[in-house]
């Protein structure tokens, strides 16, 4: 679709609607959140107070579920049984943590709940539906309601929620006449819910005749009822990304001509508007995909530019498809960027490639624009999520040793022991590291004997040749043919060349 319009109307409206919160994150520094004695910690979720959950390697080398109080380093969360692992996935504003733990010789996983104030206590196990083999949870709202799936012995899954304080799930019905007797849909999955104790829930369901639809479940006198959210005229598949407390829903749908566009359903469940236009100088767009929405109804998402690489946008819907326009948030100087979350104050976070070719976490606000967050001393970093109010950001970053640590922006200094050289690296620092890395690789190539050097440089040239042109992707046949060619060249190397390759590039050598 091609519609030419001026950004002069949409940009001021976008910025006015977005500029509602403090740009504190734009100037705050990343703080290393510490470890559990091992060399790795990964953040997963945080709340407005700055408490967080994730996964860490302990001193014994085991990966364990971890909890950070607002001002301290990580603490290991207890498991259901000794030597059975757990995974923490979400934490709400009350500090209640939801996750999943392995239990029993069969290795099945079950949802669990921890109380953050007593992280060392054994978690409470949640049940699957009657006659089901297992269940899994992935979200908790402010009232303590948990969303997930219950899985039958044959592997089929049903969407469920566990009400606050209850170990037994409530099944969310499928679409159709008198479901589950005559359902028109198959397995449904919860995407989001509001924060009440009897929440409205949204998600997706597969249709028996193919495709997926967006669904809203609402509580009533006789339990929950499912309603399909409308597809675009003549369009097909839809998926849901998020819902706010006003029950507006953001997602993505296919149009009648097969295009993919960001959509927002209004609270009445029948009105839908969509974004299929994004004007950026010298860049067209395709596949606009919504990834999140905040309380003001502002949608953030990603799209593909002419070169097939991802860019990000924010969208303030006006409810008129022909007048909907999004605002590109810019880049870190590199070719791609990917947004993952938007907070209620309008802050957006994600990860992008900087001008030196390295991946870096970023924060964008309508006041300050986009800013890279640097690293904890290593080469790359990644944003994971924001707290609901936008005051806290968590992510993961390499430290100087190359290991990955969790970091927080906007939180307290946690008074944890940090590795040597573990300070925040600026863009200039990263440029120096990139140059250092390029020189290291060049020196290793120069140290190879002539045959091994020709082999390595040919691999690099082959990889560059496989980079797709604008709007194209390498085919599976091209990848197979190139892999076979490289394999044959390796076989032809002399033993001396192979030894040179093993000495200077052991990881490349180990591939053959």
Automatic annotation (TrEMBL):
Q: Which UniProt keywords apply?
A: Signal
Q: Which residues form the signal peptide?
A: 1-26
Carries keyword Signal? yes
| Domain of life, source organism | Bacteria
Q: Which InterPro entries match?
A: Gp-FAR-1, HAF_rpt
Enumerate the Gene3D superfamilies for this protein. 1.20.120.1100
Does the record carry Signal as a key word?
A: yes
What NCBIfam families does this protein map onto?
Answer: HAF_rpt (TIGR02913)
Protein name listed in UniProt: Nematode fatty acid retinoid binding family protein
């Amino acid at each position: 679709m091609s519609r030419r319009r001026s950004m002069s109307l949409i940009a001021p409206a976008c910025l006015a609607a977005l500029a509602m919160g403090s740009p504190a994150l734009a100037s705050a520094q990343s703080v290393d959140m510490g470890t559990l004695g091992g060399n790795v910690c990964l953040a997963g979720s945080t709340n407005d107070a700055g408490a967080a959950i994730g996964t860490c390697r302990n001193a014994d080398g085991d990966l364990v579920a971890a909890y950070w109080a607002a001002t301290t380093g990580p603490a290991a969360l207890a498991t259901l049984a000794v030597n059975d692992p757990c995974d923490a996935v979400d934490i709400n504003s009350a500090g209640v943590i939801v996750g999943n733990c392995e239990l029993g010789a069969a290795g099945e996983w079950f949802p669990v709940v921890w109380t953050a104030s007593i992280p060392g206590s054994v978690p409470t196990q949640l049940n699957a539906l009657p006659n089901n083999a297992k269940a899994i949870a992935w979200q908790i709202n402010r009232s303590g309601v948990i969303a997930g799936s219950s899985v039958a012995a044959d592997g089929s899954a049903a969407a469920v929620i566990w009400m606050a304080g209850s170990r037994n799930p409530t099944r969310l019905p499928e679409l159709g006449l008198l479901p589950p007797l005559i359902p028109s849909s198959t397995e449904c999955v919860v995407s989001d819910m509001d924060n009440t104790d009897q929440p409205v829930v949204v998600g997706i369901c597969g249709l028996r005749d193919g495709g997926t639809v967006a669904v809203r479940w609402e509580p009533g006198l006789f339990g929950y009822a499912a309603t399909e959210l409308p597809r675009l005229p003549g369009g097909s598949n839809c998926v849901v990304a998020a819902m706010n407390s006003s029950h507006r829903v953001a997602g993505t749908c296919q149009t009648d001509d097969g295009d993919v566009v960001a959509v927002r359903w209004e609270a009445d469940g029948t009105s839908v508007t969509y974004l299929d236009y994004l004007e950026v100088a010298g860049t067209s767009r395709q596949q606009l995909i919504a990834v999140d929405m905040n309380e003001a109804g502002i949608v953030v998402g990603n799209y593909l530019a002419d070169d097939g690489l991802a860019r990000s946008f924010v969208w303030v819907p006006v409810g008129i498809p022909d007048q909907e326009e999004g605002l590109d948030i810019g880049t870190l100087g590199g070719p791609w960027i990917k947004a993952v979350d938007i907070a209620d104050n309008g802050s957006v976070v994600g990860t992008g490639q900087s001008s030196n070719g390295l991946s870096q976490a970023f924060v964008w606000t309508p006041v300050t624009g986009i800013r890279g967050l640097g690293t904890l001393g290593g080469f790359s970093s990644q944003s994971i999520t924001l707290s609901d109010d936008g005051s806290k950001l968590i992510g993961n970053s390499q430290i100087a040793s190359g290991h990955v640590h969790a970091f927080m922006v906007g939180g307290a200094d946690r008074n944890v022991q940090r590795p040597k050289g573990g300070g925040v690296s600026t863009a200039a620092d990263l440029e120096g590291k990139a140059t250092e890395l390029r020189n290291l690789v060049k020196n290793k190539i120069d140290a190879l004997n002539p045959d091994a050097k020709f082999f390595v440089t040919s691999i690099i040239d082959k990889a560059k040749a496989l980079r797709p042109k604008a709007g194209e992707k390498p085919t599976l046949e091209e990848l197979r043919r190139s892999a076979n060619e490289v394999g044959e060249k390796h076989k032809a190397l002399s033993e001396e060349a192979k030894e040179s390759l093993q000495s200077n590039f052991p990881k490349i050598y180990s591939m053959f």
